[in-house]
Amino acid sequence: MHARITGTGGYLPAKVLTNADLERMVDTTDEWITERTGIRKRHVAEDGETTCDLAEQAARRALEMAGRSPRDVDLIIVATTTPDRVFPSTACQLQRRLDVHGCPAFDIQAVCTGFVYALDVANRFVQTGAARCALVVGAETLSRILDWSDRTTCVLFGDGAGAVVLEASEEPGLLSTHLHADGSFENLLMVPYGVSQGYDKVLAGEAFIQMKGNEVFKVAVNTLGRIVDETLEHNKMDKAEIDWLIPHQANIRIISATARKLRMPMERVVVTVDEHGNTSAASIPLALDVAVRDGRVRKGDMLMMEAFGGGFTWGSALLRF
Ligand code: UT7
After folding, report:
1. What is the mean pLDDT of residues 170-184?
2. What's the 12 CA to ligand 1 centre distance in angstroms?
3. By C-alpha distance, which of 215, 228, 218 is closest to 259?
4. Atom 24 (ligand 1): residue with closest C-alpha?
5. What pTM did the predictor assign?
């Protein structure tokens, strides 16, 4: 049994923060942000608007495109680093909102690679017959774990959610997924406090993203170059057979480096980082949804997804849409 994406959905909070807005908040310029990252604006959740709110909208849109109702769903996985609560998981909260009862629902935390991890797990459920209609969501409110006085991080991230419906199919859809992690790089990218290691610090507002951006950048470019090679070799496929690169959207310079490695012109790369910033686990399903809805990605196209993020984690997926 194969697993195919039959619907995509995305949702961005209404509130927009431009580079000009950030110029008024920290010592930065539109020119610096645009040149170094490619980001022009990002969406930010309003007070009280949560990861699950965004996930629900994206999930409903994906179900609508797939022609499925919530009662068809028999697996819910939400990739997030910014859950609404310690528990229930965001997936269980989403399940309640969709009025679905009984099917497995759980969160996956692999930061910016979260969606690829979630897709891999859902694929295994579908391939083994344990699920026939999975809802796979990447949803984040990264704005909640940013130090808005730290110009090295606050200009980079945004909030949003993307979702896909992954269904059992006779036709091949997902061809392979490749997951990796190396925890030894934690000092380059982390939130230094969490539940078990100082909840008081979380409550005191000290649990913010810290990143040595320049060093992360170099590892990301090299690692993503390796994972696209690994993915192509595994499938005995040539670069030229890829129709669309759907990368994690952290920085246009990282995206361009991977595109060059694949010898893909930027017209074949879905770029949303300019409009969304880095939405972590939401960035790939959001980018896919944009390209499906504007007619670029069509049924039968060969897609390469790749991501790199905190952990470090990294991964890829090759699929026939
Ligand atoms: O998604 C998960 C993984 N994360 C990533 O993939 C992010 C990877 N890293 C990056 O995207 C880039 O490294 C950044 C965009 C974060 C930074 O770009 P960079 O070209 O690597 O800049 P840098 O960190 O080397 O900083 C260069 C200069 C520094 O000033 P000095 O020391 O040269 O005087 C920074 O202080 O730019 C300064 N700077 C800023 N200036 C204006 C840092 N942030 C800002 C800012 N506005 N917002």
Report:
1. 97
2. 25
3. 228
4. 214
5. 0.98
